Amino acid sequence: MTDERTKFNIDKDKEKRTCNGIVFDSTLEMKYYRDVILPNVESGHISEYELQKKYILQEGFEHDGKRVQPIVYIADFYIKYSDGREEVVDVKGLPDSVAKLKRKMFWRRYPEVKYIWVTYIKKYGGWGLYDDYKKIKSADKMAKKITSAASSRFKN
Fold first, then answer.
1. Best label site of 28, 39, 67, 132, fewest CB within 10 Å?
2. Is residue 155 part of a domain?
3. Quick check: is 149 in a domain?
4. In a 10 Å sphere around its CB, with 0-12 CB exposed, 13-18 middle and 19+ buried, how is residue 115 labelled?
5. Is-contact 118 32, C-beta < 8 A?
6. Could you tell me if residue 6 is inside a domain?
7. Nearest one of 117, 149, 139 to 29, comparing CA atoms
């Protein structure tokens, strides 16, 4: 039997993305909850959290007599830390163009809210900021190009 996945590459096997009876949208999201949220709640570092918190990015309106639905962003995690800081976290594997657009809209609409994307890359030590991962990956790619070009020059 092959692994069945949705068009967004989400495993259809809900058991693989379930923790504490909660079925997450992705395995990666479940792992963040299990590996980061729960231990920080237990240690007291996180005082509150909310899953799937909704934020309005643009209100609904009427256009040519038709109702246009609001643009809603649903955060993977809203976190309040014991020191009072608040953060909205989205777990990303590979963000699509809609995610990138909604992130810009979120930043514009809620400039006071810290909003981050996190990802898990074993090669780079586990959980980290998605934007940092992109920079590291780009630097690695550039280093490989330089090494490859240098080694080809000195082969002869």
1. 67
2. no
3. no
4. middle
5. yes
6. no
7. 117
Whether 88 is in a domain gets the answer yes
Q: What is the CATH number of the domain that holds 34?
A: 3.90.1570
C-alpha–C-alpha distance, residues 42 and 29, integer Å: 19
The amino acid sitting at 84 is: G
H/E element holding 14?
A: none
pLDDT digits (tens, 9 = 90+) for 81-107: 999 999 999 999 889 999 999 999 999
Q: How many distinct structural domains can be found in the chain?
A: 1
For residue 82, the Cα-to-chain-centroid distance in whole angstroms is: 22
Distance in angstroms (rounded) separating the CA atoms of residues 10 and 14: 9
Contact 4, 13 (CB under 8 A): yes
Tell me which long-range contacts 91-98 makes (C-beta under 8 A, separation of at least 24). 91/26, 91/28, 91/29, 91/32, 91/117, 91/118, 91/119, 92/117, 92/118, 92/119, 92/130, 93/9, 93/26, 93/28, 93/119, 95/130
Confirm if 57 and 106 have CB atoms less than 8 A apart. yes
User: Any idea what DSSP says for residue 34?
Assistant: I
Q: How confident is the model at residue 16 (pLDDT cuts 50, 70, 90)?
A: confident
